[in-house]
DNA sequence: AATGAATGAGTATTCATTCAT
DNA sequence: CATGAATGAATACTCATTCAT
């Protein structure tokens, strides 16, 4: 009892308050929804309203737009990573696991990453690196299995899949994405068919890694 | 061809002055470049500056952003239509013509249509209908030939190709697209491989027409 | 002396707790430093941070900015009064005592009073009257001695000295005052030379008392 | 003279419109008044209102607060320079000319320079250098004449006078300066008396040039 | 017709102050 | 008592659009 109290007092970061944590979660959730729907330029006041907090509360949690975007980006990546892990764990067929991940990632609105990554924010932040490394290694594993099974053409790399996946699932700005999804899954399916071995054409350029994307975005 | 179409769209009534016409062309050209590079939200003053005219001149030619966007959309579509016509005329192999068109359309920045179409503008305008009908029928012809030749899977429609094409070539907001292109052509190639007959999987949803897109955007 | 005066000013009623008193002192000290350095507009949160307390604690001790400013003003005046008392007690030469006080008051940042007095706060508060009366009578005594000794021109009053002293030592907003001090003491010295008898010119206006300043500020 | 200098500062390129020039003048005039009265932090909207223009017009003429402050600073310096020129031209007695300039500069609110110089703005701008060089050389000339005539003590430099002058005439924030002026001229007179030869005391520190001030401010 | 200038409405951001733990 | 969190009101700044030359 005494030691616990002393430890709490001596800690420099004294355990965030429960309601503040709840607010933070609600803000991130609201931001994710609105970024996906309207792009990363949405007014902060709208995000705050949707989250049910005052606008200044948002600034208490995230010093600027960049910080909020980063948090949402990491959150989306993490959710996609979870999907990748499930696909790896639960799917028997190697290419089937890849398919499952791609469609699941689409449902997690991974396409929203594109416009968000393009905005001004610190692309060197460790949280971001961590989230990217995680998703990258998981997708690499998915692709490696499919390649080993002879189901995936050999001239594609992680970056190829991730960028195309992001682009094909990228929301149309200003539109509710409701009936767009049905098309998206068709396009993904077609793209996946193009990924299958044997290769039906020779690809231009060189295989893209996530590193290349970091340079560009 | 494109100039003819554009001329038809201009006011036929009071015989436009030569310098006014030149200004109009320069504005559309500047807008196309900037829309592609920065998205359709670019400040009007910047477009005017790039075009080398005063901002009010821009308003003289285009009552609002919607009108300018529409003009640019039509212009991009027209240029893509030209590419489709050339592919039809000059390419022997049916699927090869389709491939050629897809890559050429990418170079014409057809991906910029997506964010532009999403903005608020009158999607019922006759100019737009005309340009869309033109590109649609041309692409349909390209696809029909490939299908007839047994090179194209039978469960895809024009809308599938056009939307995926737009999405895959869509510029990343805020970034010079320079080194992005090399990836884009890879993705297009993979997608085209997925379009080839025989179909490697069953597609979800139903084949998309351009009509469906009009509803959505 | 200053602690005694400060203690008298605190609520005598409910017997304040020891840590609360310590907090109050730390807040006043922090506020004095920051007012001098950045002016009286500094964010309350910053003062609280420098004092090492939460912002709400600050409000517990001082209902609003006016109250805090008043406390700091009194504190600065008290410290200057102490200097005046020492000069009176320890300095043999009458004008030398005046000189010593002026330079010592400058080092106590008495110039910070000007911007602080200008802000909105209750200039009728008894604490303020008390502190002002104290410094005024002390400076009057210093001047009276010098005048009696024939060292001080006869057409100047306390207000003349106090205002000029405050103005000449007033910090430049936004700048660390480090190397400014060396100039300040030169200016004070020149002003003091102008105060010496015999008068070298006829002064415009009338001799200023501290009462006049109260009206104005 | 001042108009000439101001004209030189304007863009030589596109020939400014008449009404725009009038607006610019009104904005600078309004800003000068309000900076003197309330300090350089006054809301831009208030300046615009006083100038009788919309707030955005203010931004058209001055990209940010720094630019407006710079213009006002130059304007105040130019007006003081004019006073120095008149004193040099019209006053027979050397020290009399210096006295006249000092009091006239006070009436031109030269004290407002202090808080304005402290704000964030580009202290390297050529306009500023020009205005400072002008006032500096004029005051140097005034002081040189008085020194040559044996009327000015030899251990003071331009910076000593300019800083003390600015400080002594510096407006009290938040107060209309109406009845403050009568005191100011007394203080200036006392300071001037202290400047007269023969020196009545030895000055601490070293003579200040305007260069030193540039470093500090 | 063409243009530079003016404007008001909208957004981001800060900060004093109140509230809940 | 002490505190971190929440909030709304204020301000800076941008940009589409209209006005005057």
Automatic annotation (TrEMBL), chains A, B, C, D:
One of its GO terms (molecular function) is DNA-binding transcription factor activity. Residues 43-62 bind DNA. Keywords: DNA-binding, Transcription, Transcription regulation. PROSITE patterns: HTH_TETR_2. It holds the Pfam family TetR_N. InterPro entries: Homeodomain-like_sf, HTH-type_TetR-like_transc_reg, HTH_TetR, Tet_transcr_reg_TetR-rel_C_sf, TetR_SbtR-like_C. Residues 21-80 form the HTH tetR-type domain. The keyword Transcription regulation applies. PANTHER family: HTH-TYPE TRANSCRIPTIONAL REGULATOR BETI (PTHR30055:SF234), HTH-TYPE TRANSCRIPTIONAL REGULATOR RUTR (PTHR30055). This is TetR/AcrR family transcriptional regulator.
